[in-house]
Design a protein that fits this description.
- Helices cover 33% and strands 20% of the residues.
- The chain is of the alpha/beta class.
- The protein folds into two domains: 240 residues, Alkaline Phosphatase, subunit A; 147 residues, no CATH class.
- The strands form two sheets. An eight-stranded mixed β-sheet has the order 10-9-11-1-12-13-2-14, sandwiched between helices.
- It binds zinc ion (ZN) (2 copies).
- One zinc ion binds next to helix 12.
């Protein structure tokens, strides 16, 4: 039997809870979505607990699970994925931080924790810090979105067991990083040396002189948080013998792709925001199926509407997701397995992630079809897949695509 290609669609935060304003329906139940329903009607369905029943998943831990990894074994914090997402080529043992450009006075007291939400010149400022030597430790620095920054320490014997320098409050003094374990002393020392050096390099930087001249707060310091060691994991290419590529607008998810050994496809118009070009992403995904065994297409928009508590916007996003699936349906390649799911629920009423399970449809030739007719939370509960965990999804896809290896003789 020939193996098939796999297209995995992950709609971030798509799952929801019933809303009074929608007549006790979820946004999925309240939205006409003929194409998503077509895939559900012609596929096999169920509900997925991204980590385990009731556990509130982050996007990072749940993506690891959907890719078949046990997050409890491999997850080391968000910093490393963010750093990978802004293009830092990490190595096992690197310690990655998330951070902000901030404004401070000479006594390292924060006057603005986001340097006036600086947008311009951050690439130049990051470049000025990139490559700083802290003894035998090397620093790698990249600008993120707006005031955000990724900082990686590279050297021997580093430890993520250090405290943040970010005091999280303007008016407070930047914190000294401390070792939580004896083996982290050198790392804490390097972090504190970085704080001092960064101020020296940044305070008279042309970008900051220009800001001060315009009356804007200078980005003259960096505060760090969330130290994490780059995880050592077996790439998906080796583990599952799949050549895989991912499409996503947001840095965190792109970092997830890179970390698990997937290529990242650049798609113009894939912004990771509500304005993202879903048609362009679907086109790119269909094109990538010619070259790759597994294509993952991530859309952030439903999660944003959930966090904003905006039901009508979530409905509009679902309509657009449905139109995108219509485009895929119209150009359905043969010999393909398509899975449609989410990484977690982000209920509008909660404005945060919840532990509610998410819909899953698997569609493809030879896939057993059940009686589910609609792609929503209520209908999925009657699907033949029942209720499964995030880590089961990749196994189901390998089986449906005739790629699963026999367990035993
Ligand atoms: Zn998410
Ligand atoms: Zn979210």
């Amino acid at each position: 039997m020939d193996s098939r290609k796999i297209l995995l669609m992950i709609f971030d935060g798509l799952g929801d809870r019933p809303l009074n304003e929608l007549g006790h329906k979820t946004p999925l139940e309240a939205t006409p979505k003929p194409n998503l329903d077509w895939f559900a009607s012609n596929g096999v369905n169920g509900l997925v607990d991204p980590i385990a029943p009731g556990v509130v998943a982050g996007s990072d831990t749940s993506h690891l699970a959907l890719f078949g990894y046990d997050p409890k074994e491999v997850y080391t914090g968000r910093g490393p994925f963010e750093a990978a997402g802004v293009g830092i080529e990490l190595e096992p043992g690197d310690i990655a931080f998330r951070g902000n450009f901030a404004s401070a006075d000479e006594d390292h007291r924060l006057t603005d924790r986001r340097a006036g939400r600086i947008r311009e010149g951050t690439e130049d400022l990051a470049k000025a810090l990139d490559g700083l030597k802290l003894g035998r430790i090397k620093t790698i620095v990249r600008a993120g979105t707006d005031h955000r920054i990724a900082v990686v320490l590279r050297g021997r014997g580093l430890s993520p067991e250090v405290t943040d320098t970010d005091p999280h409050e303007a008016g407070e003094t930047i914190l000294e990083s401390e070792a939580r374990k004896p083996e982290a002393k050198a790392t804490a020392k390097a972090v504190n040396a970085f704080t001092k050096q960064a101020y020296k390099v940044l305070k008279d930087h042309p970008v900051n002189r220009a800001r001060v001249a315009k009356g804007e707060p200078p980005a003259n310091t960096v505060v760090l948080r969330g130290a994490g060691v780059y995880p050592e994991l077996v790439p998906i290419t080796e583990r599952l013998h799949l050549k895989a590529v991912g499409i996503a607008g947001v840095a965190l998810i792109r970092g997830m792709f890179r970390t698990v050994g997937m290529d990242v496809l650049e798609v113009p118009g894939a912004t990771g925001g509500l304005d993202t070009d879903m048609t362009a992403k679907a086109d790119a995904a269909l094109g990538a199926l010619r070259k790759y065994d597994l294509v993952v297409l991530h859309v952030k928009a439903p999660d944003l509407c959930g966090h904003d508590g905006n039901a009508s916007e979530k409905i509009r996003v679902i309509e657009r997701l449905d139109a995108m699936m219509g485009g895929i349906k119209a150009r359905l390649p043969g010999e393909i397995v398509i899975a449609i799911t989410a990484d977690h629920s982000t209920p509008v009423a909660l404005k945060e992630h919840s532990g509610d399970p998410v819909p899953l449809t698997i569609f493809g030739e030879g896939v057993r079809v059940d009686d589910v007719l609609n792609f929503d939370e209520r209908s999925m509960a009657h699907g033949a897949l029942g209720r499964i965990c995030g880590q089961d999804v990749m196994n189901l896809l390998l089986n449906a695509s005739n790629r699963a290896e026999k367990y035993g003789a």
